[in-house]
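Researcher: Re-running this chain for the archive, since the previous output was lost when a drive failed. Same request as before.
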Amino acid sequence: MSVHEDTVDAVVIGSGFGGAITSFHLAEAGASVVVLERGPRLEGEEFQQSFQFGSSSTQIFDFTAGDGMSVLAGNCVGGGSVVYFAAMPRAPHFVFDRRGSLNRPLWPAAIDRASLDPWYDRVAQALPVTRHDWDDVSYPGGIWARMCDHAGYTANPLPSAVDTSRCTNCNWMMSGCREDAKQSMLFNYIPAAEAAGAEIRPLHEVQTITRTANDEYLVEYRLVDPVDYREHTGHGSIRCKIVVIAAGAGATPVILQRSRERLGGTLPHAVGKYFSGNGERINVALLDDSRLREEFGLEAGNGSAYRSFQVGRGPVVSTWDHLDASRAEFTRFSVEQLYFPPGLGTILAQASAPEPGGPAWFGLEKKRMLDDWQSWLMLFELIEDDNEGVFGAPPPTGNAVRLSQQLLGRGTLRYRPRASTLAAWAEADDLVSRVVEKPGFGTVTPWTNDLVGAYTVHPLASCRIGDDPAISALDPTHELRGHKGIFVVDGSAVPTALTVNPSNTIAALAERAAPHIVQRLQDRGAHVSYRGTLPR
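Model: Regenerated structure tokens:
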């Protein structure tokens, strides 16, 4: 096995929103930067519209089955930005006042919606983010809006980072966008970081971080085989003045847990605790074609009123009627139309069954819904959960014990939703029922949480920022408490569920953290200066 050693100013672990944004600003500031990314690098025509083994669908995802919660995350250069659906709403104002069942402020006092808006503005300019009009909404999104209106609810197009002039509504954007329509980090921060001198190394899985005798850090990694991610082809280490961890909320705390003794034997109490699945839950509506035609006079152009589940580009319409600051905490939520491939969902849920031969998503009767999958409308609930997730002892390597050559792993996350979270899901389920079932537009089947557990594509809060050291791992600048020079800038730093898609907030927080990280690097002897530019 090959061994490689380097010395740089900064090591960035992960290349999604947090890692890409931070690496750009560090490189622009004059730092020598290496980005270590566990997954491969794919672009453009390399993204495949297939779920076959070895396609982009299995290469660029990391699905980790836990105990009561499973996590689907990005595993490639660009991270979550390559596999996200490009929905980019800003967090509502009330989110920053959340207290949870602990009844303590969960966000730092220095951060609220008004203070974060300038950083949101920077992200919107760099990607860019656009609020599309109704002419840009896909047919399934329009159906959801029409049914919401019929039930007396409003619905709005989601702001997104999609160039609709290039989008073909193929609905394969989860596996990487072949049309280069989705504005991932591959088109802005990553090329700008590389132009400024940052080096990005794919297939490098970080194992540990060690504090050296001269108060610097040694980041140790293994080289991942490009076909079988269970195999390692070499290892190495990099010495640096600062470490920025952006490996995702399912991996960042695991790296820190494994590094505990190498960092002096202590970590903040909140590392690996207070995990949030962003309050996410899926309902599947099987729509009644004849009822839609009768009520709305719709014609989808294929001899039916709907049967258009496979057409579109992910979530484009949401109802935000319950995002009202006057409502009590745990009663505020949004529901958006979503596309998630029906076969893939079944496979992943079966992989996360509690034990061999255990119950699987949908059961026998629900699986029969696959025969009429084109009539599905998938609905995505984003509620205020109560940060119930806790990570156990780290596995020997990586963030999980890998179950297959690519994609699947078994992690250490344990999630037991409290009554507050369960009640919030029930209230969102009730809205879906009132919109779809009560008027007879279809039947609704929720995700079977009681059998295979909850499921999230937006993991958050496992290493969160805050003012209170008892319940937060990071200070308000995103620095790990008690460990100067280690920063966390991914979804794990977001303290709470957001009631909306979190990518924009993760990116805005990374922009906000960048000047603090550059200043710390300067304090540690590097000749750097934050420039505040954006990718050109």
